[in-house]
Design goal:
The protein is mainly β and 125 residues long. Helices cover 0% and strands 60% of the residues. It contains no helices and 11 strands. The strands form 2 sheets. Strands 2, 4, 5, 6, 9, 10 and 11 form a 7-stranded mixed β-sheet that branches. Strands 1-3-8-7 form a 4-stranded antiparallel β-sheet, with no helix packed on it. A hairpin with a 4-residue loop joins strand 7 and strand 8. The radius of gyration is 15 Å and the shape is elongated.
Length: 125
């Protein structure tokens, strides 16, 4: 009924840039409202951490590590959320996943805590 699909991950050199995208896809006839969306990441052996978030009103928040280097944005017309990353460091290497709070209105009222499968970002020389 509702799926989040990430794209844009890959191998990049330290200091480089990468743009991740997350698309919200639904089955025909589904009516929904997406409120807060976010990007998380999980490095090998580490806990999942919140990298950046954005509300439907456009308010953004960033982790200390991401602040000044990453930018999260929403495109409501395309139902996507993006994460522009620059000045990448080896410690940014992780699986990046998008998350969204979704309110389904049709065909049945539901509240979803939706996650994408993730996309791998590797920062290495």
């Amino acid at each position: 009924q509702v799926q989040l699909v990430e794209s844009g991950g890959g191998l990049v050199q330290p200091g480089g840039s990468l743009r991740l995208s997350c698309a919200v896809s639904t089955t025909p006839g589904t009516i929904f409202i997406t409120t807060a969306t976010a990007w998380y990441r999980q490095a090998p052996g580490k806990e999942r951490e919140l990298v950046a978030s954005i509300t439907s009103g456009g308010s953004t928040s960033y982790s200390d590590s991401a602040k000044g280097r990453f930018t999260i944005s929403r495109d409501f017309a395309e139902n996507t959320v993006s994460l522009q990353m620059s000045s990448l460091k080896p410690e940014d290497t992780a699986v990046y996943s998008c998350h969204a709070d979704i309110y389904i209105l049709r065909p049945a009222t539901r509240v979803l805590d939706a996650w994408g499968r993730g996309t791998l970002v590797t920062v290495s020389s």
